[in-house]
Amino acid sequence: MQPPTYPQPLVTVDIVLLTLKDRVLQVALHRREKAPYEGTWTLPGGAVHAQTDTNAIDSAVRILATKTGLKSPYFEQLETFADAYRDARGWSLSIAHYALAPEEAVGRLSENVRWVPVDSLPSLPFDHLSIVHKAVARLRAKAQYSSLPLHLLPAEFPLSYVQRVYEDVMGSSFKPRSFRRWLEELQILEEVPGKKRAEGGRPAALFRIAPAYAKTLAVSKKGLG
Amino acid sequence: MQPPTYPQPLVTVDIVLLTLKDRVLQVALHRREKAPYEGTWTLPGGAVHAQTDTNAIDSAVRILATKTGLKSPYFEQLETFADAYRDARGWSLSIAHYALAPEEAVGRLSENVRWVPVDSLPSLPFDHLSIVHKAVARLRAKAQYSSLPLHLLPAEFPLSYVQRVYEDVMGSSFKPRSFRRWLEELQILEEVPGKKRAEGGRPAALFRIAPAYAKTLAVSKKGLG
DNA sequence: CTAATAGTGTCTCTTAGACACTATAAA
DNA sequence: TTTATAGTGTCTAAGAGACACTATTAG
User: Fold this and answer.
1) What is the structure's pLDDT at B217?
2) What is the pLDDT of residue B128?
3) By the CB < 8 Å criterion, does B87 face chain A?
4) Which residues of chain B (188-207) touch nucleic strand D at CB < 7 A?
5) Is the pLDDT of residue A2 over 80?
6) What does the pLDDT look like over A111-132, one tens digit per residue?
């Protein structure tokens, strides 16, 4: 809250867009078009445009769409990474965000976008590797007690698929009976009447996120092992 | 990660320092010395000094000490508030932090510092009111499952005081038996041998935070009602 | 002794987990 | 029929909550 008598750091926004592909958490990387690190894969990111973005989330949405052509139903600020060393050019600041998208929403990809499993990332420029790790840690922490991973679901799905998504996110298995009970208590999912999907055995009833919750997907407690 | 071809927002850091005084959560306010809002009470805050601060937490520690003379054993980044409207001068950005301090550490105060209960705050300039509310919400959320509130404790204390601190933070009561069991499982507190403190009845054994945990105070699960 | 606070033993009630059972499809 | 997946009923085990009981001080 002082006049800028000191040199101000460059303000950027980086986005960690996560999806489940091939049952593995993957992050969207973008090929840089400018130095430094021109041509290498990094998190999509860019500068805040004070003229067009009303807030930081706006910047994240705009930058992700512009750089990768991708949209996401869920954006959340992750953490601000700001120090003297993360960029060799000097003190810099990135308001990191993370976003979740169902695989069906990320089918077509431009040439400068690539999905990479978060557990087999090569080194990344700047501090992008630790940003990705923080985003994954946040998602996994929230998956333990919230409905956040439901954002990774397609429009309609059997309940067994919900459990699989949670397991793929967490990298551990859940007790089926307890997981079902928890889903019921949540009261977020509703059955799509009549619809079934067979997968080699008894066809599963299809569910969807109840319209009332589609935008909220609130944090609800969960205790599962 | 682009050259600054666009006007860059001013980067500031604000600090929400919380303590328990008179069994109520209170926030430290600082009297502004500059326009706008000169002379009114706001969160202590200031600009990042790229030359001296190696990261944003450093800035927060320095700014809190400089403006208020206060130190805190615990700093954590809260959230970055960045939009076009929070400051009438235009697009601005504040990396908000929160800090916790035991009451004993905040005894002497300079004239430009004031403690105000967080539940009876007057309106504050900028978006400082919502920053305080977010900080309190974060503390209360973490108090539900972590040992974070232990940072509000003095050096030595009876166990009943720990429960009182949790209750004063949360504004609700805990079941004594369950709370004790949880404290034991935590294995963070150790008895100060021989020491007791009487408060009208049987004297209570005094405890302290075990040195091994003094800097960590890790997040441990809790389920209390 | 009573009053007041500290601290524990133990029963109950809730709920996660185990697991067997039924249900509905294909081959 | 068998095989495979979906889904439920119900017992068990663990742990939170209730609550009575003992412990240690002052007056």
Assistant:
1) 63
2) 98
3) yes
4) 196, 198, 200-203
5) no
6) 899 999 999 998 999 999 999 9
- Judge if the beta carbon of A117 is closer than 7 A to nucleic acid strand D: no
Separation between Cα atoms, residue A46 and residue A53, nearest integer Å: 12
Q: A45 to chain B: which residues are within 8 Å by CB?
A: 1
In whole angstroms, C11 C1' to B58 CA is 53
pLDDT class of B21 with cuts at 50, 70, 90:
very high
- For residues B221 and B186, the answer to whether their CB atoms sit within 8 Å is no
Cα dihedral value A80, A84, A90, A92, nearest 10: 10
Q: Select from B51, B80, B91 the Cβ nearest to the Cβ of A95.
A: B80
Cβ of residue A41 closer than 8 Å to a chain B Cβ: no
Q: Is A134 within 8 Å of A79 (Cβ atoms)?
A: yes
pLDDT at A3 over 50: no
Task: Tokens 């600020």: give the residue.
Answer: A77
Tokens (6 digits) for A81: 């990474």
Q: What is the pTM of this model?
A: 0.92
Which token pair is B39? 């002379």
Contact A49, A59 (CB under 8 A): yes
The reply to whether residue B1 touches residue A8, judged by beta carbons under 8 angstroms, is: no
